[in-house]
Structures are given as C-alpha cells and as structure tokens.
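Q: what sequence does this backbone want?
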C-alpha cells in the first residue's frame, strides 16, 4: 500500500495509487495560461472550463479557505474538479452552459490537479502556497465517530464484494451475446455501486471509468467512454454487444480495482457523513431528469439504491446525531419515509417501472421531497463538527 501526505484539509490519511493520466496539456496553451491572479477584489478566484481545457490551465492560491467561481464557456454541461493524486478533493458537476457555479474548499500547501471540463481533457495545475494558515482543531468527537465509521467501511466493503460478483456475471452475459439476460441484470448489478457512490467517487480515475455518462465525452463512440453506461447504450440502443466486449472486460477489472482500493482506504469522516446528502443531492440535481439511465430507463432503481445508501449512513450515525440534534434526525426520518413511500408506488415484481412511464406530475411529486431530504441531510456534517 502506497501512502502520500494529505494536502487537502482532511481528518484521515488518504491512499495514493498509481493511475493513468490524461494527455499532457499543449505546452503553448500551458504557457499562455500560467501565472493566474490569486483572487478577485471580492476574494473569489475565477476559473473557466471549455470543451478542451481550463482557462487558465494553472492557478495559484494561498492555503486556507478559497471560493472558486467556475464558468462554463461551452455549449454543453461540464465539470471541474480538484484532485490530490487520483482522489477527488471537491468538485462541481453538470455546470450549465454559459453559467457559473461556486465552490468553497479549504486547502493546505501543495500541488493539486484540475479536471478541465471533460474527463479526457488535459489536466490543469493548482498550486497552493503557504499562507501560514493552520488547520483548526477538529471539532468532532472522534471517539464517538470511530465505530460508525468502521461499521460503514464494512458495509461498503460488503457492497463492493457483491458488486464484483454481479458485475462478473453481467460481463459474462454481455460477452456471450445474451442481450436480454444482460439487460435483466443491469439495474440489479448497479444498485451496489449506487449505494456506495460517495466513496466510489473519491477515486478520480475509477469512478468515471465505471460510471461516466455520454455527456462527459465528445461523442457516445469516444473510445474513452467506458463502463456501465457505454454498455447500456450498446444493449438498448445499438442492440449489439459486438463493439463492447473489451469494454466489458475493462469494467470487470475496474470494479475489482475499486474493491481493492476501498479495502485499503481510510475513510475520511467528513466524506462519509456528507455522503448521505451527496447521494440525495445527485438525484435532486441531475438524476431526476432521467439523464443517467437514459437508454434503459432504470432510473428508479438507482434512486432507491441512493436512498438506501443514505439510510445506511443515517442508521450508523444515528446515536451521535440524536445526541446533537434529535429534531433534525426526526425530520430526516420523516422525509426518508415520504420518499420511500413515493418510490414504493412504482415498484414492480422485478424492479421498478421504466422511468419514461412516469408523468411530469409524477416526477414533480418525487422531486419536491427529494430536494427537501437533501437539504436536511446536508446539515449532518455541521451538526457533527465536520464542516
């Protein structure tokens, strides 16, 4: 196991692993974009992304808390991430064309990478200089968090183990050309990934390889587009698996690599506790539109798995949350019941109704309580002193 000194403010050690890197930035572009100003008059740092790179490709900021103002200079949804090695420190996904999003993050001195719009674009460089900032004393009572953190790791490891087993069976069906069988296995296999997505997303190379969508690439046939959703496209749209058998093998290998990395990872407490909100925020922010499982229409299965993942975090941290804010816990429990009751209406003998069978009114009725739940879960980190 290789370890690197953590640069981002975190309570836990983070595993460093070797991984493939995107192509290096063109030297002329990098030179033209160096030495960006540290901050605007309002203290925010501007960064833009387009279809090919970050603008600029290199930023320098002082250590401590920084707010980034991220502009999407393209005609498609893009993302921006700060990475420490292959670990995602923080990110903003699905930034709408022509619009900006803000992200506040606390960083310690060192050098980070930036994901610039598309996953296949060259990465930018973020240099954090030493401003004398000192990390504040941990406000969380780690003695009370240690056991739920350990139990959550066991839960995630168990889900990852089943994910490996079911992915292998799914891949075998794909490679055998058994399209109907593979289709039937698709949603049931993915639930084990969706339940543990906050941890999977910490791995900035494996998560996109396994779970990226068409929107992350220039075209659906981009050779860099791999994972579940590329195979989903082959099964439902191309109705042929002839072109994705190598991708299926890669998916199997990537899922096994993810399970191994999870085994070695010291789970960051703020990522775990915040993961309950992240799971529901993803549903509220983008998945509710049906953009994730757009070919198979199995979105409701993903929604349910995301809710189950959030419920597990609530269950494990219930005693410490109840001690700090019992009213918040009661509100979250009530909101979870509301969301689960709505999802139950669409349950079928072998899963859920296809998402395109829901009316606009159905989707609206689901979106409102999901947004409310996400807002309440987002309070957990602050409640436990992990902001």
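A:
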């Amino acid at each position: 196991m290789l370890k690197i000194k953590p640069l981002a403010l975190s309570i836990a050690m983070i595993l460093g692993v070797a991984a493939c890197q995107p192509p290096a930035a063109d030297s002329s572009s990098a030179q033209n974009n160096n030495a960006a100003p540290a901050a605007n008059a309002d203290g925010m740092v501007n960064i833009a992304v387009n279809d090919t790179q970050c603008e600029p490709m290199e930023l320098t900021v002082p250590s401590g808390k920084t707010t980034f103002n991220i502009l999407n200079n393209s005609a498609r949804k893009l993302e921006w991430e700060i990475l420490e090695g292959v670990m995602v420190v923080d990110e903003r996904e699905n930034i709408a064309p022509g619009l900006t999003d803000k992200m506040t993050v606390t960083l310690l001195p060192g050098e980070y990478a930036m994901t610039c719009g598309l996953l296949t674009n060259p990465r930018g460089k973020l240099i954090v200089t030493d401003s004398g900032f000192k990390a504040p004393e941990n406000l969380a009572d780690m003695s009370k968090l240690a056991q739920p953190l350990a139990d959550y790791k066991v839960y995630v490891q168990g889900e990852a183990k089943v994910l490996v087993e079911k992915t292998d069976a799914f891949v075998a069906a794909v490679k055998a050309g058994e399209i109907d069988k593979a289709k039937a296995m698709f949603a049931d296999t993915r639930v084990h990934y969706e339940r543990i997505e906050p941890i999977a997303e910490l791995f900035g190379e494996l998560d996109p390889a396994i779970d990226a969508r068409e929107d992350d690439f220039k075209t659906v046939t981009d050779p860099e587009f791999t994972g579940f959703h590329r195979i989903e496209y082959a099964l439902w749209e191309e109705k042929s698996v002839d072109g994705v058998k190598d991708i299926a093998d890669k998916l199997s290998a990537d899922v096994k690599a993810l399970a191994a990395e999870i085994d070695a990872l010291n789970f960051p407490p703020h990522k775990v506790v915040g993961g309950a909100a992240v799971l529901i925020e993803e549903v509220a922010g983008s998945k509710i539109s049906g953009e994730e499982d757009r070919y198979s229409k199995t979105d409701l299965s993903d929604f349910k798995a995301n809710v189950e993942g959030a419920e597990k975090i609530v269950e494990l941290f219930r005693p410490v949350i109840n001690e700090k804010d019992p009213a918040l816990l009661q509100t979250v429990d009530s909101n979870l019941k509301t969301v689960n009751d709505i999802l139950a209406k669409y349950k079928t003998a072998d899963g859920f109704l296809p998402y395109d069978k829901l009316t606009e009114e159905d989707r609206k009725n689901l979106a409102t309580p999901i947004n409310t739940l996400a807002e309440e879960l987002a309070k957990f980190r602050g409640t436990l002193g992990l902001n």
